[in-house]
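Late entry, evening session. Most of the bench is empty. Finally got around to the prediction I had been postponing all week. Sequence below, unchanged from the version circulated by S.P.
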Amino acid sequence: MILRPNGSRQSGEPRTRAFPRPGAALLAGLLFSVGGPVAAESTLTDAARRGEALYGEHCASCHLLSLRGSAHGAALRGPAFQDRWRGTSTSELLRYNQANMPPGESASLRDEEHVAIVTYLLEANGWLDGMAPFDFSTPRRIGGGADPEPD
């Protein structure tokens, strides 16, 4: 079998990748050799991945997997969501989510699950870059600006 540097294969060849993605080793080295913000980013990225899975399980039936909304749930990505939540705090969005979502079953999710879902929503709207980790007691300004004082 001949493996090509670009990962392509001829018909009938098994689906394997002969070479790692360009820069993968460099990226891995940077992630493990640098502390501080990279660790925080990784934590937020991990939370967003958990949130995406939880969103698919608990939210997508009303808001759709695309986050574009439906007759049963508002859009959670794009201008309407951004206009509603820009300038508020993560604590406000978390409290809203915790009190109202999923409708009639908000107590079915633990606090850390609500945090993960909100993290995913912030990532989907491009607001996670540069944001420090947050929870109910450490609010962050949504959409940029100085973080508010803890509640």
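Two things to note before I forget:
Residues 1-39 have pLDDT under 50 and may be disordered.
The CA atoms of residues 122 and 128 lie 6 Å apart.
Will write this up properly tomorrow.
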